[in-house]
Structure formats: structure tokens, C-alpha cells
């Protein structure tokens, strides 16, 4: 009887142990499963020699510093390339919009000395002749810039183009506009001198400036060199789209006599540190024009092109006085609009 009881006890203990083991196993399995779901899974990928992993990027177009047959010999941009920096092309945030033969090329060459300024080298004529090509086309003609640098473009004919103010505003209503103005009489003679250098067979200035070619007749306001000098007419169009505070008027005369003074105003207007100073300029007595000790792309002193500082033809003083009398009321109106008396006789 005692043996039978012992067997029953042993079987009960075995059964109890089995049940305990099963319960413990099931509990541990649930805990492990829960933990595996809570802890991030780490995946180990085998390394395959010479295999390039697939990387998915967002749709961002990075424009290289140099594209196609473009060249840029600027030492600082060579350094940027070597450092792996990737400048991008931006639409301009400042424009030199005019006026023709006022000194726009000089202003562009002078301001691009500044390390924080990059400028399109040639006139793009986007807002007057190439607007239908779109802003992407315009952007492609801009120089590559780094963050914090300013992009500038110069096309003097923008000032007189009727559609230009609205088009510029559509691009960026905060665009800063620079206008280089010059005595309209001197500007007209300079305009004529440029034209006659290309077409020597042109009639004399004295004949073109009057309606019937006679000094005694009225001024021909349809003739380009005269028409462009009525600055107030064109400024009124720009002021419909931009406040006066976004336009800076640079004296073409003072830009020649004291470029450092005008460049100080330009740098302040553009929000740039005053880097370009009198130390950058020297006066060339032969050309009668300020030249640069050095600039981007030129380590040696140099002047602007041979077409700058071109000699003007002799003009009958009576004709010049007639022109001064003609422009006087328009000049006074322009002074009132800008709040600046440029002192043109």
C-alpha cells in the first residue's frame, strides 16, 4: 500500500513539474515576442565589393560652378571648388537698369571688385528682348554664387523699356535698382559718338538733333539720343511699380571724378560692407577716366575697354545751348522726383 502511494506521489510530482515547465516556457515566449516588437530591428547587410548603394535624393538641382564651355579663372572660385563648395546660379537681387552712355559699365566693373558681388559679364537683355524665354533661361545666364553673395545684372535699355518695370516686379518686388544718370546733353553727344563710330556715313549731330536739320527749327524729340535724355518720363513708369527707396541714382559725372564716393553710396544701398574704396582706383589722364589697380580676373592695373572715354566730336556751341534750354524743365522735374539736384547746366 505504501509502495502504491509512493508511485502516485512521484507521478503527481512529474506532472506538476511538466505543467510548471510549460507555463514558464509560454510566459518567456510572450515576453521575448513583446520585447522584439518594442526594440528597433538592426539589419546587417553583407558588404559586396565594388557595389554602389542606392541613395534616394529629393528633387534638388545643384548647378555646378562651371558648365559647358564656360570658364572662370577667379582664384577664389578655384579655391571654393577645391574645398567641395558648390555655388549655384540665382536670379539677380539688384539690377543696373540705366541709363545708356551714363556710366553703367564703369559702375558694374567697379562694384564687382567687392568679394560679395557677382555680376553677369554681358548685358542679358532679358526684360526687354528675351523675356519670353523664361526665368530659368535668365537664371542660366547668371554667375554662380555662394550663400551671402549678391547677384547683379546690367542692361541699360531696361530703363526705357515700357514693360520692364512690371516684369522686374514679377520676378522680385524687392529688387534693388541702380540708375546711373548723366547730363542729358553730354549723354546725347556720347550716344551719337558711339553710333557714328560704327556708321561713319551718319549725318552730323547738328542735322539730326533738329526736325528739319536746321538750327533754327525745333528739337527732334523722336531722335533716340534726345528722347532718352528725358529721364523723368521713364522714371515715372518705374515708380508705378517700385518705391523710390528701392532706386539709387548715381551721378555719372561724380563716378568719373570721384568713384570712391559713389561706390560708398552703392555699397550702403546694397547692404554691403564698405570694401571698395579710393585705394582701388587711379586716374588715367590720357583717357580722362578712373581705372582700377586690380579687379576680379585682373591682377594688374587696367582701364575699361577702348570704347570707354571715347573722344566726342566737335558740336556747335549754339546747338549745345539749344539742347540745354530744351532739357532744363525736364531736368528740374527729374530733380523733384528723385530729391537730388545733379547740377546739370
From TrEMBL:
Subcellular compartments: Endomembrane system; Golgi apparatus membrane
Alphabetically ordered keywords of this record: Disulfide bond, Glycoprotein, Golgi apparatus, Membrane, Signal-anchor, Transferase, Transmembrane, Transmembrane helix
Family: Belongs to the sulfotransferase 1 family.
UniProt protein name: Sulfotransferase domain-containing protein
Catalytic site positions: 101 (for sulfotransferase activity)
Chain sites annotated for binding 3'-phosphoadenylyl sulfate: 101-105, 182, 190, 308-312
Pfam families: Sulfotransfer_1
Residue ranges annotated for the Sulfotransferase domain, each copy included: 93-328
Keyword Protein transport among record annotations: no
Predominant subcellular localization, coarse grouping: membrane
Membrane topology type: Single-pass type II membrane protein
Protein's organism: Phaedon cochleariae
Cellular component aspect of the GO annotation: Golgi membrane
Amino acid at each position: 500500500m505504501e509502495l502504491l502511494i509512493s508511485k502516485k506521489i512521484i507521478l503527481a510530482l512529474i506532472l506538476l513539474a511538466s505543467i510548471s515547465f510549460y507555463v514558464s516556457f509560454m510566459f518567456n515566449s510572450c515576453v521575448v515576442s513583446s520585447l522584439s516588437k518594442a526594440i528597433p530591428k538592426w539589419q546587417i547587410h553583407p558588404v559586396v565589393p565594388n557595389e554602389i548603394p542606392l541613395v534616394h535624393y529629393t528633387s534638388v538641382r545643384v548647378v555646378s560652378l562651371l558648365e559647358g564651355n564656360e570658364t572662370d579663372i577667379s582664384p577664389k572660385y578655384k579655391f571654393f571648388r577645391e574645398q567641395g563648395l558648390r555655388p549655384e546660379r540665382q536670379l539677380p537681387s539688384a539690377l543696373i537698369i540705366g541709363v545708356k552712355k551714363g556710366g553703367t559699365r564703369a559702375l558694374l566693373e567697379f562694384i564687382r571688385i567687392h568679394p560679395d558681388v557677382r555680376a553677369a559679364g554681358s548685358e542679358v537683355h532679358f526684360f526687354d528682348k528675351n523675356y519670353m524665354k523664361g526665368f530659368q533661361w535668365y537664371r542660366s545666364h547668371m554667375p554662380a554664387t555662394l550663400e551671402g553673395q549678391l547677384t547683379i545684372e546690367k542692361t541699360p535699355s531696361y530703363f526705357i523699356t515700357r514693360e520692364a518695370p512690371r516684369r522686374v516686379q514679377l520676378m522680385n518686388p524687392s529688387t534693388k535698382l541702380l540708375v546711373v544718370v548723366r547730363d542729358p546733353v553730354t549723354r546725347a553727344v556720347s550716344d551719337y559718338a558711339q553710333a557714328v563710330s560704327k556708321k561713319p556715313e551718319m549725318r552730323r549731330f547738328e542735322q539730326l538733333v533738329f526736325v528739319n536739320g536746321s538750327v533754327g527749327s525745333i528739337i527732334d524729340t523722336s531722335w533716340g539720343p534726345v528722347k532718352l535724355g528725358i529721364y523723368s518720363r521713364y522714371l515715372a513708369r518705374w515708380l508705378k511699380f517700385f518705391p523710390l527707396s528701392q532706386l539709387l541714382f548715381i551721378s555719372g559725372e561724380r563716378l568719373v571724378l570721384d568713384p570712391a564716393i559713389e561706390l560708398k553710396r552703392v555699397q550702403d544701398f546694397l547692404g554691403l560692407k564698405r570694401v571698395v574704396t579710393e585705394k582701388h582706383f587711379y586716374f588715367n589722364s590720357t583717357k580722362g577716366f578712373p581705372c582700377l589697380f586690380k579687379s576680379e580676373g585682373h591682377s594688374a592695373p587696367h582701364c575699361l575697354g577702348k570704347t570707354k572715354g571715347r573722344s566726342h566730336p566737335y558740336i556747335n556751341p549754339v546747338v549745345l545751348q539749344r539742347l540745354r534750354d530744351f532739357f532744363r524743365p525736364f531736368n528740374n522735374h527729374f530733380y523733384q522726383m528723385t530729391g537730388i539736384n545733379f547740377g546739370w547746366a
